[in-house]
Write a structure and sequence with these properties.
This protein has a domain of about 160 residues: 3-Layer(aba) Sandwich (Carbamate kinase). The termini are far apart. The protein has eight helices and eleven strands.
């Protein structure tokens, strides 16, 4: 029987929701939807914080495989159908991540918002919490199980339900800027910003539904670059990385 490790005293956030976009698994040169080396690097970062005794929930997107909104615009796929296709993409990514973590000795469970008993547990809140208490990583897939909701909203919802200390939003940029840093070299990065100010300035942190949930339930979000060394570890230790968005 696995039991949770004692939490390292340096850890600031003991229970987290790690939000990964499907795009973070995409291969650089290979262009594969799930690149083996990228998956391994991401899993090693997760193992690193698991070894510190952090309770980890993961919400993963499916954008590397299919995006409902893009499918509607570019391929004429009905939005509802496209969203369900995207949800199934998250299941594929979740299983890949589970397989990678388990090979590293990290016990992992996948819980799906859409019942598919052969490959994942159904999402049951108490069971998910019990897994965390036993030191298992829990990966939430299939979004909220409903079309028109993004995996950002799923992360906000699960973080509220699980009473997580924070949402760690791992991206390809190193934080939140006052304008697009790729277009404007004079863009300024915030080290910390309040929800209200981020809303007023229409900063692209999360979609509005996710943002409202975080605001209402007082769940902070840390936006950071996954590709910097030991990024997730530095985040849970409360080091100065990325941008902290809070009430």
């Amino acid at each position: 029987m696995h039991s949770a490790k004692a939490v390292d005293p340096q850890v600031r956030y003991k229970r987290i929701v790690l939000k990964l976009s499907g795009e973070v698994l995409r291969g650089g040169k290979s262009g594969d939807p799930i690149d083996g080396a990228t998956l391994e690097r991401t899993s090693l970062q997760i193992k690193e914080i698991h070894d510190l005794g952090v309770q980890i929930c993961i919400v993963i997107g499916g954008g590397n495989i299919f995006r409902g909104l893009t499918g509607e615009k570019q391929r004429g796929v009905d939005r509802t159908t496209g969203d369900y296709m995207g949800m199934l993409g998250t299941v594929i990514n979740g299983l890949a991540l589970m397989d990678s973590l388990e090979k590293m000795g990290v016990t992992t469970r996948v819980q799906s918002a859409i019942p598919m008993n052969q490959i994942a547990e159904p999402f049951i809140l108490r069971r998910a919490i019990r897994h965390l208490e036993k030191g298992r990583v829990v990966i939430f897939v299939a979004g909220t199980g409903n079309p028109y909701f993004t995996t950002d909203t799923t992360a906000a919802l699960r973080a509220s339900e699980m009473h997580a200390d924070i949402i760690l939003k791992a991206t390809k940029v190193d934080g939140v800027y006052d304008k697009d840093p790729k277009k404007y070299p004079d863009a300024v990065k915030y080290s910390e910003i309040k929800f209200v100010d981020a809303l007023k300035q229409r900063l692209d942190v999360m979609d509005s539904t996710a943002f409202s949930l975080c605001l209402d339930n007082n769940v902070a979000i840390l936006v950071f670059d996954l590709n910097s060394d030991h990024a997730i570890r530095n985040a849970v230790l409360g080091k100065k990385i990325g941008t902290l968005v809070r009430g």
